[in-house]
Design goal:
The longest helix is centred in the N-terminal third of the chain and has 17 residues. This protein is an alpha/beta fold and 217 residues long. The N and C termini lie far apart (50 Å). It has a single domain, classed as Vaccinia Virus protein VP39 (Rossmann fold, 3-Layer(aba) Sandwich).
Length: 217
């Protein structure tokens, strides 16, 4: 695109609402080999750690959730259109709850909205606004009693793939979590088996970063 202006975006939440309203889905990361990899990692972790409840910030179209084996689940999403569809998809599943997520109008100072494990899967690099990104981390870590699993990129470069992905932005996640959430330690990093590159754009830019609250075994 050279010196041409990049396409303007209405904001991350508005982008996803518009995308879903036009019939789009949650993307390649929630399908095929990428979805299977995430499900295998998370299902194994939930079982091995005796996790009873899971909260996810960004449940999307439910494709990833359809592979999950969670005892109890609460899924948030910013898109009213897609959330209604996902709720309908799992309407007969009594183990799953859903709610609309507005990062600016979300507050849980009383600590009511909590679970053993909080998830953010392929969400963070879609948060193009600094405030929304910061609030997202606050809400994810604030909702977790024992563990947090982030599946995202981690880099200082604010550009992800330049003009090829105007709705995506890298964030220095490891640095920011260490700075703002010192009571959490990185328990494990699990690299995805099919990384993205300019030569292989079918790969994923994300890896798992699994955090554990200090003092919790």
């Amino acid at each position: 695109m050279g010196s041409e202006e990049k396409p303007s975006l209405p904001g991350s939440a508005a982008y996803w609402e518009r995308r879903y309203a036009k019939g789009g889905n949650s993307g390649a990361g929630s399908r095929g080999e990428h979805a299977q990899f995430k499900a295998e990692v998370l299902n194994r972790f939930v079982a091995s750690q005796g996790i009873d409840s899971v909260i996810e910030f960004g449940c999307g179209d439910g494709e990833q959730l359809s592979l999950a084996e969670y005892p109890r689940y609460l899924g948030f999403d910013v898109s009213p259109t897609q959330l209604s569809r996902t709720m309908a998809r799992f309407a007969e599943d009594a183990s799953k709850s859903f709610a609309l997520y507005d990062p600016i109008r979300y507050s849980d100072r009383a600590g009511i909205i909590t679970a053993d494990l909080a998830l953010s899967l392929d969400v963070i690099f879609h948060l193009t606004e600094d405030e929304v990104y910061q609030r997202h981390l606050e809400h994810v870590f604030g909702a977790a009693r024992r563990y947090v699993a982030l599946y995202t990129s981690d880099a200082d470069d604010p550009e992800l793939t330049g003009e090829f992905a105007p709705h995506m932005r890298n964030h220095p996640v490891l640095r920011d979590v260490a700075k703002h959430f010192p009571e959490w330690r990185l328990r494990e990093r699990i690299e995805n088996p099919h990384p993205w590159s300019r030569e292989d754009t079918d790969g994923s830019i994300s890896d798992f970063f699994i955090y554990e609250r200090t003092g919790v075994s």
